[in-house]
Amino acid sequence: MKSTSLPNGEAASANITRRIQELGDWRGETLAYVRHLIHDADPNIQEEWKWEKPTSPGVPVWSHDGIVCTGEAYKQVVKLTFTRGASVEDANKLFNSSLEGNTRRAIDLSEGEKINDAAFKQLIRAAVEANSAALARRRASTRAKPGASHAKAVNLLSGGNPQIAKADGDAPVQEYIASMPGWKSDLGKRLDALIVRNVPNVRKAVKWNSPFYGIEGDGWFLSFHVFTRYVKVTFFRGTSLRPLPPGASKSEGTRYVDIREGDTLDEAQMATWVKQAAALPGWIP
Question: 237 near 284, Cβ under 8 Å?
Fold first, then answer.
């Protein structure tokens, strides 16, 4: 039965959780474990539930600027299929299935088989980058050429998220904020100013098309990311903050706040979370 009463990605997440529980064996355990690794690799990844029909219960899908990978449970294996796997560097040779195709690659995990956690998370991040680059190329190819401005154009990816090249420092973060569409840019400026005001020694960078904030030598404590209807502020050690930020994540330790147009930004509460987060050991990808 479909879960239709929950908003946004919550219905998909509920379906994936139910699927794991229904399997009730090593396949469910394996699917739950790789789900955790996926969210740990990319806290901004979205869960989807696709291809549900009378003859199929549906398939767990993880997406960021397009499908990153799917997770299917068969009798003998759990299959993780990467839609752009052929264009993703796989230095640790995790791909062991669907090797003959021009686009897809897959990882088949059998009962008792272990996966290289670090290599798998790197594969997830590389797949996200491949998706973002492909989406940017498609949008660039359809952009009108006559009368185009000579100002540097920034591609907007899914949800209106700016595509900014990976770089350290304040400049790429400010470029990202300036490119956030509509009301979201003003929110980005307020968040950035609040973070700098409360953490004067903050380190900044843009990674995976998101501004990251951290402490030099101690990892990252916060990032934010543009979605169609909201901006997601992610605290990587959010479960250690008090009070807890409202959004729970599949990534261990992570909590988040979704801010929508018209919401009142509680700057005092946000400042409290930022100062707490900056004092904790950061997240190191």
Answer: no
Q: pLDDT band at 232, cuts 50/70/90? A: very high
Counted domains in the chain:
2
Q: What is the pLDDT of residues 110-163, one digit of tens each?
A: 999 999 999 999 999 999 988 888 877 776 666 544 544 444 567 888 889 999
Q: Which of 229, 279, 275, 273 is nearest to 255 (CA)?
A: 273
Distance, CA of 259 to CA of 184 (rounded, Å) = 9
Rounded distance between C-alpha atoms, residue 18 and residue 7, angstroms: 17
Q: Work out the widest C-alpha separation in the chain, in whole angstroms.
A: 60
Query: CATH number for the domain including 113?
Result: 3.90.1150.200
Q: How far apart are CA 174 and CA 152, in angstroms?
A: 14
Residue 228 belongs to domain spanning: 158-278
Residues 163 and 265 in one domain: yes
Which of 65-74, 105-114, 129-138 shows the lowest mean pLDDT across its residues?
129-138
Question: Using an 8 Å Cβ cutoff, are 135 and 65 in contact?
Answer: yes
Tokens for 37, please give them: 């690794």
Do residues 120 and 201 share a domain? no
Indicate left, alpha or beta for 202 from its phi (over 0: left) and psi (-120 to 50: alpha). Answer: beta
Asked if residue 168 and residue 259 are part of one domain, the reply reads: yes
Which residues have C-beta within 8 Å of that of residue 74, sequence separation ≥ 6? none
pTM score of the predicted model: 0.66
Identify the CA nearest to 88 among candidates 64, 105, 72, 71.
105
Sheet with 220-226, strands from edge to edge, namely 167-168, 203-207, 210-214, 220-226, 230-235, 255-260, 247-248
